[in-house]
Amino acid sequence: MNQITVLLADDQTIIRDGLRALLETNPGIQVVAEAKNGMEAYEQTKIHHPQVVLMDIRMPEMGGVEATRLIKQDFPETAVLVLTTFDDDESILGAITHGASGYLLKDISGIKLADAIRDTVQGSVILPGSIAAKITKHISRQGKAEISLEEFTQREQDIIRLLMQGKSNQEIAQTLFLTVGTVKNYISQIYSKAGITDRANAILHFKQLGF
Q1: Residue 92 burial (CB count, 10 A)
Q2: How many Å apart are CA 110 and CA 211, to the nearest integer?
Q3: Biggest alpha carbon distance in the chain?
Q4: 64-117 pLDDT, tens per residue?
Q5: Residue 175 half-sphere exposure, CB side, CA atoms within 13 Å?
């Protein structure tokens, strides 16, 4: 079984050491690099091309939100999973807007963190209830999106609803009796119509449409 490669970005050495020790108890996960600030996270991503970056938010020199933007801009295949103690609206929305695949707080258990990493690689968006509630509140203040549901075909709407349930591409394919490649093509069409580029922003966008 291929291992999931992970980069740890946190300015506290003791946190990185703890995360490494915790994750390396999982045979399917390998920590390939560490970084103590956002710029190092970007540079280490350039070298190691990890599948997942576990990203803290507040770090010296460059924080997690800006690092997420740079990584997703240049390495879109790398998933960024925020792991932090800060749950303020600005941090959450900044990270998700710039392409983070999820936002977790550091009180999460080791088992749930490992599961979140696996789910992220499968294409799921990881948003605990308290974080999702903050995003929903923000969306409700922004009003409805201009694009209407009628602009999507019935099949596209089916896929959107499954995306909103956190289903991975493989799970969507199994549910709708499609190939994974076909699902990817549909998702690309959906993104193009909505003017979005990643799964997390898709979920925010379609919440506005009432899915």
Answers
A1: 24
A2: 32
A3: 52
A4: 999 999 999 999 899 999 999 987 778 888 888 888 988 999 999 999 999 999
A5: 16
